[in-house]
Amino acid sequence: MKWQSLLPAGVKPDFIVVGGPTASGKSAVALEMAKTLGGSIVCCDSVQIYRGFDIGSAKPTKAEQAAVPHYLFDLLSWDEPCDAAIYAAKAKEAIASIKALGRIPVVVGGTGLYLRALLGESWDDDLPGDQELRQRLGLRASDDLYQELQAKDPRRAAELHVNDRFRVIRALEINILTGHPVRQASAATPAERSHVMVFMNPPRETLYERINARVGQMLQDGLVDEVKGLLENGVRADCKPIGSIGYKEVIQMLSGELKPDDLETAIATATRRYAKRQVTWFKKVASDGVVENPHSVPDLFAHLRDLL
């Protein structure tokens, strides 16, 4: 494990972040961390915040959520909007509530845009918007939108998956309205550091093995039935959370666009590509600790105790 605290000397962290790619083991480490250090978990996952999206998002089980307090999971209905600014505001409220109870907030997840907003690096809070333009962009195919974003703002495109229509459209909207890539258009400045950042970064081969195993387990646990149940309960197939990896591929299978025999491979392939993007993003984030091997987790907890 690599460790170098980036907090100013003598400053205690307001919260701990456990971030990394999907299937990197961050949820298990965060849960054990909360148990060991007297913490509470705060969700930083753009799908786990939605009710009913459990299996495909690898949401903590009811038993896990009962082990320590969990915040912002199952927060929204499928038709309620959420962007980075909304998430950051709710996460800050949760962090304040946890600290008031004398516990340490442990923010866990892999949604980089939400995390950036929480850390004071949100890129679109004060940037212009145009609902009519957004609707026009929404009529276009995902591949077409992503190709245009790659041409206009390759850096932002590299942070997103082609299927992340919500954020791809928002990035294009900003570019069209301002004439600049996202970062040039934004005037946001990072807040003073008051957190500890832990990056879960297992070897790529290990990560891909975990992803393959997780996808297989999700299908065994009933991912297809979960999607069917969501649709039967009125969830629209074009809503934001159902456009995420896993749910999107099941929708394609149910509509005949994808063969049932190809479902597992399609989800695993998309997940591995997304995980690769996540790793690239988190490597650019200033981390206090980088955990590549689960055997080093006790050392991580020892370092955190020294800070607390």
Residues in β-strands, percent: 5-15%
Average pLDDT level: 91
Indicate the CATH topology of the largest domain. Answer: Rossmann fold
CATH class category name of the largest domain: Alpha Beta
Structural class per helix/strand content?
alpha/beta
Query: Span from first to last CA?
Result: 19 Å
Give the domain tally.
Answer: 2
Rg from Cα: 19 Å
Number of helices: 14
According to CATH, the homologous superfamily of the largest domain is: P-loop containing nucleotide triphosphate hydrolases
Poorly predicted runs of 5 or more residues? none
The CATH architecture name of the largest domain reads 3-Layer(aba) Sandwich
| Major beta-sheet overview | 7 strands, mixed
* SSE run: EEHEHEHEHHHHHHEHHHHEH
Main-sheet strand order equals 1-7-6-2-5-3-4
Protein model, in words:
With 308 residues, this protein is of the alpha/beta class. It has helices at 26-37, 62-67, 84-100, 112-118, 131-138, 142-152, 154-158, 165-178, 182-185, 204-221, 223-232, 247-254, 263-283, 297-307, and strands at residues 2-3, 15-19, 39-43, 70-71, 104-109, 195-200, 289-291. The chain contains 14 helices and seven strands. A seven-stranded mixed beta sheet has the order 1-7-6-2-5-3-4, sandwiched between helices. Helix 2 links the parallel strand 3 (39-43) and strand 4.
